[in-house]
Design a protein that fits this description.
Shape: globular
Oligomer: single chain
Structural class: alpha/beta
Helix content: 25-40%
Length: 754
């Protein structure tokens, strides 16, 4: 590594952490969570969109409920697909059993569920356990992201306005901001005003509202009848905690963790609160068998038939999605792949491919599901696979998570291997250096806006689907993909297991790798250059010094937050363009959080002032501003502002025009010179400036560093103010754990591949 490229100021010699001091910690992490301690339910913040609460709760925007934005239309299409999945799951609505004799809490819970199904009140003993061990303090819990819900098309504007007005009246009586009305109507549906009067804690279903704010609303409406032990409060807080867990990536929670979290939220009887949520159908209970071997039996004693289980509580939508995903993947694995020539044809394709792609081609030849792991350079192997499938007459498609990822993959030569340095020709006899043209985004594929379309049965009209950046798949998206594959189709999930997981619930790619139910092909193609060498070391827990003769990697030590902002702006606007030759518009800043003295907000303000000053006449934006557009939770597209008019803010993202209605600008558009690592995952730029201020030390993990550093193609500058915390994070701090059910569900359907 070298120190910063030539600048107009003195720079200290560049060793990691030199001269850095810690700033006061901020509450705004990569998740943008301006919240208090998040110890409940064992949740940890995801790095998705930020939503803060001011004056009771953040505004959901006052958009007319009858207008469908582009994102809402897409979500509506996806909801239709979810309905199809749920219909296929209808037979699974019976009692949930573990297939083993149960005792203690597990037996009580199973009895509670069966009592609910028979219409009885569940027993009061479920969840009664010894006092849990005091929990370690964890990072603040995430604030919910807004969940756009499209109003029914037949609802007239007049009726919608009347409904919003009725909800506003109730909110006003309870002292809550009337700007919550559209969100309350979307969350609660018809009769939202009556529901809030009957159960004020239903306000917790609105994104951004917290229990203490719902308590204040309930006190204003109920007066002396408002009590902490109200059954309605316990039920609402239970659902809220499960939703918070989903935002942190969990698809379910261990029962003891949920009970402890309810106690921390001043719910006097956590057992009763959970049972109430189960009775009302707001949550479901599951028992998953543990891998722990039962204790050895003493000689002469009767052998115990009990199996250890863990009891989980989860929301129905994620339970259905996880079960649907397991069923879909099992179907893909157990289906006989469609006729595609012969085994000899696949072998000829593998023999003519480069050494890095041959193993992948051979694995796909005989299996319905294959996992492919590797860095960005390994996408050349996926391209070679698609090229080979095309030569065998198969309908092969690749799907990426971002439009820029799609464009990058389309431009990739199908047969080039960086290790071999040359093309080798394809199985169909052509030179094999043409682009892979059949590429879509995952969202476009599911909505039908892109890709091969669907056949008469509603399945994708394809024979092979390669999903790139697979760690970004959340459980609901993965379930829709698996359910939409035709019988006999092959599925390849390809990605880098070292990057951050999905913004939505689940850890699909990691769960599949751990389950070992299908072939796994590890790429031997490393990412090139000093940046690739540095990132590869981070992936195995080592922060190495790398040779960077062309200043490909530069360390810039800073002492405080002010210096960090100053040096970041200097690097983007002056040093990198002059010394490296990469212009400012091709350099991306990445920082751990949105808030704080060196978060995205502060850095974007400073970068706008230097690179595109202006009055920000349209919601703080001017033509030429770089922006990050989030049309739906967990999805970010980068682009720039073209203009603003009565229709809204006109953007260009990945070469495509986008119009954001003015009422949605504040909710879905940010300045984009600086992003968080979760916003940047799946994207790459010629140069990246990663900013690590002193107050970021607690937020650093190995996957965060790996993801942030890996966004740079040619040049990486690290504005370093965390001293030894960077090396410690790389060596010792893994991905934050997530609780999921997918491994247990797969184990019940598919034997391990060994």
């Amino acid at each position: 590594m070298s120190t910063e490229p030539e600048t107009t100021e003195e720079v200290e010699p560049g060793t990691p952490g030199a001269g850095a001091t810690a700033d006061p910690p901020t509450a705004d992490t990569d998740a943008g969570a301006d919240t208090d301690a998040g110890t409940e339910a064992g949740t940890t913040p995801s790095e998705g969109e930020e939503t803060t609460v001011e004056g009771g709760a953040e505004s959901e925007g006052a958009a007319d409920a009858t207008k469908l934005s582009e994102a809402e239309a897409e979500l509506a299409a996806q909801r239709l697909e979810r309905e199809r999945i749920e219909r296929r799951k209808a037979e699974k609505q019976g009692p949930i059993t573990a297939g083993a004799k149960l005792s203690g809490t597990a037996a009580d819970l199973l009895a509670a569920v069966r009592a609910v199904e028979s219409g009885e009140k569940p027993v009061a003993t479920a969840f009664r356990e010894p006092e849990p061990t005091p929990r370690r303090a964890v990072a603040p819990e995430p604030v919910p992201r807004p969940q756009p819900v499209a109003a029914p098309a037949e609802t007239s504007a007049a009726l919608a306005q009347e409904a919003v007005a009725a909800v506003r009246a109730v909110l006003g009586e309870g002292g809550a901001p009337d700007t919550l009305a559209p969100g309350a109507l979307a969350a609660l549906g018809e009769g939202a005003d009556d529901q809030l009067r009957e159960d004020p804690w239903q306000l917790l279903r609105v994104a951004g509202v917290r229990p203490e704010q719902a308590d204040g609303f309930a006190r204003a409406l109920l007066g002396a009848e408002c009590r902490q032990d109200d059954e309605r409060r316990g039920r609402a807080v239970t659902v809220w905690l499960l939703e918070q867990a989903a935002l942190a990536g969990h698809t379910a929670l261990d029962a003891p963790a949920l009970a402890a979290a309810l106690a921390q939220r001043a719910v006097p009887d956590p057992d009763a609160a959970v049972q109430s949520a189960l009775a009302e159908g707001d949550a479901l209970v599951f028992q998953d068998a543990l891998d722990t071997a039962p204790p050895a039996q003493e000689e002469g004693t009767e052998e115990s038939e009990e199996r250890p289980v863990r009891v989980l509580i989860g929301l129905e939508r994620y339970a259905l999605a996880e079960e649907s995903l397991a069923d879909g993947l099992a179907r893909v694995m157990n289906s006989v792949p469609k006729t595609d020539g012969s085994a000899d044809g696949w072998e000829r394709a593998a023999a003519s491919a480069t050494r890095s792609a041959a193993e992948l081609i051979r694995a796909v030849a005989g299996h319905g599901l294959v996992l492919h792991t590797g860095g960005h350079a390994s996408q050349a192997e996926a391209a070679a696979l698609l090229h080979a499938a095309r030569g065998l007459g198969l309908r092969g498609w690749a799907a990426t998570h971002t439009p820029s990822g799609r464009d990058d993959f389309m431009a990739r030569p199908a047969r080039h291997d960086p290790l071999d340095g040359a093309s080798d020709g394809g199985p169909s006899g052509d030179a094999g250096d043409g682009p892979v043209t059949k590429v879509t985004t995952v969202a476009g594929l599911l909505s039908g806006a892109e890709g091969p379309g669907r056949d008469t049965d509603g399945a994708f009209a394809l024979d092979l689907l390669v999903v790139l950046d697979a760690p970004q798949l959340d459980v609901e998206t993965a379930a829709m993909l698996a359910e939409s594959l035709p019988d006999g189709a092959r599925l390849v999930l390809s990605g880098d297991p070292g990057v951050l997981w999905s913004a939505g619930p689940g850890r699909v790619f990691a769960d599949l790798l751990a389950a070992r139910v299908c072939p796994q092909v590890a790429s031997r193609t490393p990412d090139p250059g000093p940046v690739g060498e540095l990132v590869s070391g981070v992936g195995i827990g080592e922060l190495n010094q790398v040779e960077a003769p062309g200043k490909e990697v530069v360390i810039v030590p800073v002492r405080d937050a002010g210096e960090a902002v100053h040096r970041t702006v200097q690097l983007v606007a002056d040093s990198v363009p002059r010394a490296i030759g990469i212009p400012a518009e091709q350099t991306q800043v990445i920082t751990p959080g949105h808030g704080g003295a060196v978060g995205t907000r502060a850095l974007n303000s400073a970068l706008k002032e230097r690179l595109n000053p202006g009055p920000g006449r349209f919601g703080g934006f001017d033509p030429g501003d770089r922006v990050a557009h989030s049309p739906a939770p967990g999805r970010t597209a980068v682009g720039h502002v073209v203009k603003a008019d009565a229709d809204g803010l006109h953007l260009e993202c990945s070469g495509l025009p986008v119009v954001v209605p003015k009422e949605r600008v504040e909710q879905s558009v940010r300045h984009g010179w600086a992003l968080t690592a979760h916003q940047a995952v799946g994207l790459r730029w010629p140069a990246a400036v990663v900013v690590l201020p002193g107050d970021a030390a607690a937020a650093l993990t190995r996957p965060w560093v790996y993801t942030a550093f890996g966004r740079a193609e040619r040049h990486l500058s690290v504005v370093h103010g965390v001293e030894q915390a960077l090396q410690r994070a790389v060596a010792e701090v893994p991905q934050k754990p997530r609780t999921t059910r997918l491994p247990a569900l797969l184990k019940a359907q598919v034997p391990a591949a060994g």
